[in-house]
Amino acid sequence: MRAAASRPAAILFDCDGVLADSEALAAMVVAEELTERGWPVSPEECQHIFLGRAVPDMMPIIEQRFGPVPDDWPARMSRRLTERMARDVVPVPGAKAAVAALRAAGMTLACASNSSRAELSAKLGRLDLAAAFEGRVFSFEDVDRPKPYPDIYRAAALSCGAAPEDCVVVEDSLPGIRAGRAAGCRVLALVWDMPEAMLRAQGAEPFRSMAELPALLGVA
Predict the structure, then answer these.
(1) Which secondary-structure segment (H or E) carries 181?
(2) Predicted pLDDT of residue 26
(3) Model's pTM, two decimal places?
């Protein structure tokens, strides 16, 4: 992994799997919802299928695999996820300390997530991280196209007064990595289950712990 020659203009964080240890919890909620509809599916399968996707983008996949769902399903699913996240989500190990170290070093931070506004607010509120971004928080609802399109990271960079190529994105999913790279950002990818070779093939630089992040960004 290359070292940063100079500090980036801004750090653009994903939320799920980077700040909030929420992906397994979200997969559990989606599995419960689909099973209640008569389509038994495991949380592990849901996590594999839907990792990094916005709720509206899940709908055609569900209908292709299982069957039709009501038009209001995305809104209902978002409410269910928001309620669960507000109650049960926990931070990714080392994430809160990494964010605190970057803020203390004077770095500008933003958060850009494929979650709904309500769900994202619930997660950042539960983790006491909302203030770290000083209003620079973006949901897929704030842009024309969700990840893997670059819109959300371009908007986040603009909110920081920075060009995307001067920003670093912190991600963990393939849609998020593709969005960051398409925006022109350097992308650091936290390794969970995906092979490092796959992350590198998408143009990301893998790292294994949020505790490593400040040093990777030039903060001792």
Answers:
(1) helix 174-183
(2) 87
(3) 0.85
